[in-house]
Amino acid sequence: MVVIFVLGYVAIAMEHTIKVDKAASALLIGVLTWTVFVFGTGDILGVDTSLSVNGIIDQGGEIMKSLRHFLFENPSDIPAETPGILNHYVTHELRHHLIEISEILFFLLGAMTIVELVDAHEGFSVVTNKITTKNKVKLIWILSVIAFFFSAALDNLTTAIVMAALIKKLIGDIKDQWIFGGIIVIAANAGGAWSPIGDVTTIMLWINGQVTAANIIQAVIVPSIICLLVPLIILTFTMKGNINPPEEIGKGENHSTSNFEKNLVFGLGVACLLFVPIFKTITHLPPFMGILLGLGFLWLITELLHKNKTREAKVSHTVVGVIRRIDVPSVLFFLGILAAVGSLQSAGHLGLLASYLEESIGNIYVVNIIIGVLSSIVDNVPLVAAAQGMYEIAPTGPYMVDGTFWEFLAYCAGTGGSCLVIGSAAGVAIMGILRIDFFWYMKKITFLAFIGYISGAIYYILVN
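Below the sequence we write its predicted C-alpha cells.
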C-alpha cells in the first residue's frame, strides 16, 4: 500500500513531465490502495484468520484497535467466518471515509459554483476595481492580508477558491499567477490555523475539547502572523516590477450585466460564504450543508433576476450555465488523494507513524514540527486524529485543555501543509484552479513556506 501511494505521489508530482493528469494518478492510487487492503487485510492488520469473532476482539495490538471496536459495536451485522469479517470491516471503513470525503467534495463543488456565479456577473470587479496598484510587492501584501483574515472568518479552502478567482482577474501572466497563488496558500493556511473555524484540524481540536476558542486565538495568532510575514518580507526584497493585467474579453450585448446585478450577486455571494460558519454554529450540521443552502438561495435569486432575459443570456448567468465551468478534474483529484490517505489510516500506517514519532523522539515540540512537515505529504486530518487517539486530555501539563501540545499541534498541522502544494485543501484548490506545477511550487514556494513555518514555530517555543 505504501509503495502504491509513493509511486502515485511521484506521478502526481511529475504530472507535466509524464503528461498524465494528476487526477488520473490520484484516482488510481485511491482505488488500488483499498484493493490491496481488502485482499491483504489479515496480513496487514496481523489477524489470525483461524480465530473466532471473540478471539479477534481479545487479540492485542494497537493496530487492531479499530477492528476490535468495529466487531464490538456490530456483533449481529457481521459474517461468522473471519475472511468475511475482514471484508466487511474494510467496506465499513471505506464507507466511513467516504462520508468525510463527500462532505469535503460537496463543499468544494458548492463554493466553486458560487464563485463562478459571481464571476459570471463580473462581481469580482467590485473588488478588483478598488485595487489600483500594479506593483507586485504592494499587491501581494494586499491579497495576502485579505486571505489571512478571510480564512479565519471562513476557512482556508473557501478562501483559496475565492482568492484564486481574484488572482485570475488581476494578473495576466501565468507565472505571476503561480507566485501569488503560492503565497495565498501560505496566507490561507496561516489564517485558518489560529481560528477555531478556520482549518479542519483546529475545528477537530476545538470540537473534541482539547482547545477552547478564545485561547487558541490568543495562543496561535502571533505565530501564524509570523508564518506569513517572513515569506512576505523576503519577497519584498526579491520581487520586482509590475503585474500585467489580463486581457479584457469583450462581452456580447445579451451577456452584459448591470451594476445592480453585479453588486447584488457579489454581495449575496460573499454573504452566502460568510453564513456557512454561522449556519454550522447554529445547527451543528456539517459545513457542506451551509454552502449548499447558500448555493440554492443564490441559484433561486439569479433565476428570478434573469427570468425575462433571452434563454442564452439567462443560461450564462445561472447555475445551469456556470456549473459547466467547474474544474471537475480537481474535484476527482481530491477524491482520489483523500481516499488513498484514508486507506493508510484504516490500515494503521498513520497510527504506527505517530507512535514511532512518540517513541523515538518524545519531545512534544519536535513531534509537532515533524507532524506539520508530514502533513504536507499526507493529509493533516488523519495525523491530528492519530495524535488525538494517542493522548488523552490530562488535568495538568502539556496535554491538558489548552495545553502547549494541543496549541502547538493546531499551529503545526494547520500551517505545515503549505510546504507542498498538495499538502493542504487550500493548496489542492489553488493547484487545480491555477494549474500550478508541483515541482515549480517546490522550487519557488516550498522554501518560503518552510522558513515561515519554522519561524512561527520557534516563536511559539520561545514564549512557552
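The CA atoms of residues 354 and 386 lie 7 Å apart.
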